[in-house]
Amino acid sequence: MLGCRDKCKQVEILITIWGLWTARNKLLFEGQSKRPDDVATFVRSYCLELHIIQDRMKPKLHRATYWVAPSLPFVKINFDSHFKQEAFTAVSGVIIRDNNGHSLGARSKMNCHIASSFAAEAHAAINGLQLALDLGFRYVILEGDSLSVIKKLKSEKEDFSEISALIWDAKQLSRAFSLCQFRFTPRDSNKVAHAMAQEWTSSSSEGIWIDGAPESITTLAAADRKQDVPS
C-alpha cells in the first residue's frame, strides 16, 4: 500500500506530465511557446488548488457548526477570503470578537496580484493579525477554515511552498503578541468572516470598523452568539 505522501507525490508527477504535454501541444499546434518557469508556476498552482479542494471535501465529523467564544483573556480573530481568479485579486474578511461574542473590530481589504486562493487565505490571516496588533490585543486566537494555511502556521518546519513568504510574515506578526494560537474551524462556524469577504462591494480598497461591524455582519454575529457555547 502506498502511503499518503507517496500518493501525493504521484499526483504531482502526473500533473507535471500533463503540464508539459499541454505546453508541447501549445507549441506544436498554436505556435505558443511556454517558458519553463510558466509551466512550473502552473503545476504548483494546480497542485495547491487541488490540495485545497481535497481539504474542503474531507468529512468534518463531530465539529461545532457554530462559532465558539474564546476564554478570557483571549480574543478570537476569524479570517476568510474571496478570491477573484479572473482579476488576480482577493478580498480579506476579518472580525475580532471577545468572550461574549461582541465585535471589537472588523476589516475588509482588497489585496491585488494574488496568485491563488491559497495565497488569498494567507493574506487574510496576515490582515487579521495586523488588525489585532493595531488595536492592542495581547492574547489572540487566529481561526480560519483553510486547513492548509492553519497547518503551515502551526508547523515549526520551514515552509517551501509558493506562500512561504506570507507564512513567514504571519509567524513574525504572531510573535508580537504575548500569546497567539492558531486554530482550524469549519466554514459553518466561520460564516461571519466569510460574509465580511463576500459582501465588501465598496469602491474603496479597505474598510475598518472599531468596536463594531457593518449592520448585516453584526446581525449574523448576533445569531452566532445566541447559539454559542463558551469554550
UniProtKB/TrEMBL annotation:
Q: Which Gene3D superfamilies does this UniProt record tie to the protein?
A: Ribonuclease H-like superfamily/Ribonuclease H
InterPro entries given for it?
A: RNase_H-like_dom_plant, RNase_H-like_EbsB-rel, RNaseH-like_sf, RNaseH_domain, RNaseH_sf
Superkingdom of the organism of origin: Eukaryota
Q: What range(s) does the RNase H type-1 domain occupy?
A: 78-199
Q: Enumerate the Pfam families for this protein.
A: RVT_3
Mind telling me which residue stretches traverse the membrane in this protein? none
Q: What is this protein called?
A: RNase H type-1 domain-containing protein
Naturally occurring in which organism (per UniProt): Hibiscus sabdariffa
